[in-house]
Design brief:
Radius of gyration of chain A: 20 Å
Number of helices of chain B: 10
Order of helices and strands of chain B: HHHHHHHHHH
Structural class of chain A: mainly alpha
Structural class of chain B: mainly alpha
Helix content of chain B: over 70%
Number of strands of chain A: 0
Oligomer: heterodimer
Strand content of chain A: under 5%
Strand content of chain B: under 5%
Largest sheet of chain A: none
Helix content of chain A: over 70%
Radius of gyration of chain B: 21 Å
Largest interface: A-B, 43 and 42 residues
Distance between the termini of chain A: 25 Å
Largest sheet of chain B: none
Number of strands of chain B: 0
């Protein structure tokens, strides 16, 4: 009974920040799409795409285009999704770290953990609440993108590609959410977990973005969850990679297990 | 003075990590310069055969990649973003932390005026931000001048690098002020990091995605300084610096007005 109260409490507590994140991402979707008009008009269609193909990979990576033809709708969407993915991953990492560590930050440790409910149950309820918020934010961004798409897309329908792109992002979100939880569960000073989680997100993001620039960096790219789903392939119509899904799911389960195992054992800060 | 020292010491714990990370980021990117410049040169030959309209659409960016100052503006985008995160985080955290940690009564009952407390805290942040910048300036100018003087490289006026590096300071101080002003909206701010990261990435995205006409440019601190203009004209943009100064002072004034009158949160 009590665990469901924790779930409800966490969901209510998260509404305000979720709203702010959602508004920010909606703004990103709208302003991002507006810029497409300018880019596609300047490019002059096919010629631009052809030129892009001849550009060396390092240059394309530096300009932020990667393997994408940003003059096509789907290529441009990937460019935007790269921004959204970073925002959603940071949200996930902070959310995971914050949800579990907030009692220690707000000095409410004694209040919550002296209730007749196991820490395991509290952590599980907190995780469920975070997962719901994660999904809502992903769906809001996806919904906004799909809703605004017809106004700009004059080519073939790309709904299924967009769905796949956001599916890949969802896996990345879950990985960073569980990483945030694991950090908050294991660090002795869990108030630092948020900072470490965001360092993790930003560092792995930069690692993936720099990989095409250098073979040395490229060797380490596989360590970055951002590299597991190849957004350009998803945009080209391929399905989500089974290996990538399995790896992210396993990693997420492992980190959740570490959380649920480690958190009940830790000496909480009061 | 005690307060300045205490706050500076607290901030310094993370500041040296920031400084090292910034230098590493710049070094990593700059180490790739010669390879990328070679790629760019080759591509420019292909590029020249394309219609003028297309050359115009991409030309500015491509042209600059092949030169060291142009390449450095791209590196600078990331460095600026990182220093902005540091500065915003300090801004959001510095005045709100007593309410968050329940130490308002401890600090504000000391025989020191609120004015002096706010001043000390602001001075501490400014000092730490400046120190971070100085470390980065030393390392980056060392790297840049080394690259510019490498055998076969095109000679570059070091003033360009100085002007470019200086914009970091401008953006940093603006974002510090923005964070500071934002933190005043809450009587008790529970969590700093989501607010500061949200502000930084939010304003960065707004800057990246908004059309860059004259009015929209002043919405995001990341768009105040025109790096391309600095590279081409080696110009100190007095207007941008003036606007940056206004933003900076505005946040400070707001901090004094609100904190001197506020009914502080006491646990």
């Amino acid at each position: 009974m009590f665990a469901s109260q924790v779930l409800g409490r966490e969901l209510r507590a998260g509404v305000k920040s979720l709203l702010i994140w959602a508004v920010a991402l909606l703004f990103g979707v709208v302003s991002g799409m507006t810029k497409y008009t300018a880019l596609s008009a300047a490019g002059g269609g096919a010629t631009m795409g052809e030129l892009m193909k001849q550009m060396p990979e390092s240059l394309r990576a530096l300009l932020g285009f990667g393997n994408l033809d940003v003059t096509t709708m789907v290529g441009y969407i990937v460019l935007l999704v790269l921004y959204f993915e970073l925002a959603l991953a940071i949200h996930a990492g902070l959310l995971g770290a914050g949800t579990l560590s907030k009692e220690e930050r707000l000095h409410t440790t004694e209040f919550l953990y002296s209730k007749p409910v196991a820490r395991f149950a509290v952590a599980t309820a907190k995780f469920a609440a975070a997962l719901v918020q994660l999904a809502v934010l992903n769906l809001v961004t996806l919904g906004a993108t799909l809703a605004i798409l017809p106004a700009y897309n004059h080519g073939p329908d790309i709904t299924s590609q967009v769905l796949n792109l956001f599916g890949g992002v969802a896996f990345v979100q879950v990985v960073f959410l569980t990483a945030g939880f694991a950090l908050a569960a294991l660090l002795r000073d869990s108030r630092r977990a948020g900072a470490w989680a965001s360092v993790l997100v930003v560092a792995t993001y930069f690692l993936d973005r720099m990989a095409p620039l250098s073979t040395v960096v490229a060797d380490f790219d596989v360590l970055s969850p951002f590299s597991w789903f190849h957004l350009d392939e998803l945009a080209a119509g391929q399905a989500l990679s089974a290996v990538a899904m399995a790896v992210s799911a396993l990693l997420a389960v492992a980190m959740l297990a570490v959380t649920l195992w480690g958190f009940p054992k830790r000496d909480l800060r009061v | 003075m005690n307060i300045v020292l205490h706050e500076a010491r607290t901030l310094a714990k993370s500041a040296w990590i920031w400084a090292v990370a910034l230098c590493a980021l710049a070094a990593l990117y700059l180490s790739l310069f010669s390879a990328i410049a070679r790629d760019a040169e080759t591509f420019m030959a292909i590029f020249a055969a394309y219609p003028a309209a297309i050359q115009h659409a991409l030309g500015v960016t491509l042209d600059s990649v092949a030169s060291l100052p142009g390449f450095y503006t791209m590196v600078l985008t990331f460095v600026t973003l990182c220093t902005a995160i540091q500065a915003t985080n300090a801004g959001v955290g510095i005045l709100s932390k007593e309410a968050r940690d329940g130490t308002s009564d401890f600090l504000y009952t000391k025989p020191v005026s609120r004015f002096a407390i706010v001043t000390s805290k602001l001075v501490a942040v400014v000092l730490v931000l400046l120190a971070t910048d100085v470390v980065y300036y030393l390392v980056s100018s060392f790297l840049l001048i080394g690259l510019a003087n490498a055998p076969g490289a095109t000679k570059v006026d070091p003033t360009v690098f100085a002007l470019l590096d200086l914009t970091i300071l401008g953006v940093q101080f603006m974002m510090f002020s923005v964070g500071l002003a934002f933190s005043l909206l809450f009587r008790r701010l529970r969590n700093v990091l989501p607010v500061s990261l949200g502000l930084t990435f939010g304003l960065y995205l707004v800057g990246a995605l908004m059309p860059t006409d004259d009015a929209a440019r002043w919405v995001s601190p990341f768009q105040y300084f025109d790096l391309h203009d600095i590279v081409v004209n080696t110009r100190f943009d007095l207007g941008a610096w003036g606007a940056a100064g206004l933003v900076f002072v505005g946040g400070l004034v707001a901090a004094y007005i609100v904190t001197l009158r506020r009914d502080l949160h006491v646990r």
